[in-house]
Amino acid sequence: MFAKNPLKRFAFVLSALAGLAALSLLAQLAETNRNYERSLSHLRYLEARLEDAHERVLQLNAEKLANQEREENLDLLEFKNATFRKKFPEFSRIVEVAFRKARRYGFHPNLVLSVIQVESAFNPLAVSAAGAYGLMQVRYSVWRDALAIDKARIFDVDYNIDLGLRILRQYCDASGGNVRRALFLYNNGYLYNNTRYLARVSSSIYNQDPRETVAGVGH
Which of 48, 98, 113, 122 could form a disulfide with 206 if both were Cys (CB 3.0 to 4.6 A apart)? Predict the structure, then answer.
């Protein structure tokens, strides 16, 4: 039939070519669309990574500033401490020993400083009429044998605070961890209900910081 009608044959060939061209175009469009989707997905991935990197940079910058502030605060504390030690060497040593011994015997350093203030007003050579000695006013006649006290060292800051806290620790253990009762015993006021002593320890300037409440002794 096509041999007899060249126009129909030409039209058929033209139609076939057009169809092939259309199929080729559709294939190219499909490939282009896949490439676009892949590119878009890659861009979204890069965008997410950039956001993560930006957040990490902000975090690192914040950490850097925080570290700088901490370093500056540490430098300031070291400077203040060095200056304090030069101005008040004896008091500075008492504070250092009280802090170290308090940690050893399980007490808050503020409590130890409060007791020292009430007992001796930070006088390492204090002696009471009742025969109590040093910063913690250790009763030598009472504890001489139990603690094997070396009287020649009883005014030594480190030794005296250690003795006092050994005594307070014993009283605290005997009181089931009740610091208030232990303080009554320490002052020999338990039998006489000596509430004034506890009030003086509680009202010490070293027990006034609400962020550093002395367990069992606060107001």
Answer: 113
Task: Please check whether residue 190 is in contact with residue 181, taking contact to mean a CB–CB distance below 8 angstroms.
Answer: yes
Domain residue ranges of the chain, discontinuous segments joined by +: 1-87, 90-212
Residue 178 buriedness (CB in 10 A; 0-12 / 13-18 / 19+): middle
- 90-212 under CATH 3.30.70.260, yes or no: no
DSSP letter assigned to residue 212: G
The angle at the Cα of 161, spanning 155 to 165, to the nearest 5 degrees, equals 140
Pairwise pLDDT comparison (100 vs 207), residue with the higher score: 100
User: Measuring CA to CA, which residue among 115, 117, 145, 139 is closest to residue 127?
Assistant: 139
Q: Is the pLDDT of residue 2 over 60?
A: no
Closest CA to 164 of 96, 91, 103, 98: 98
3-state SS, residue 133: strand
Beta bridge partners, 139, equal 132
Nearest to 180 by CA among 164, 159, 165, 194: 194
Please, what sign has the CA dihedral across residues 186, 187, 193, 197? negative
Model-level pTM? 0.67
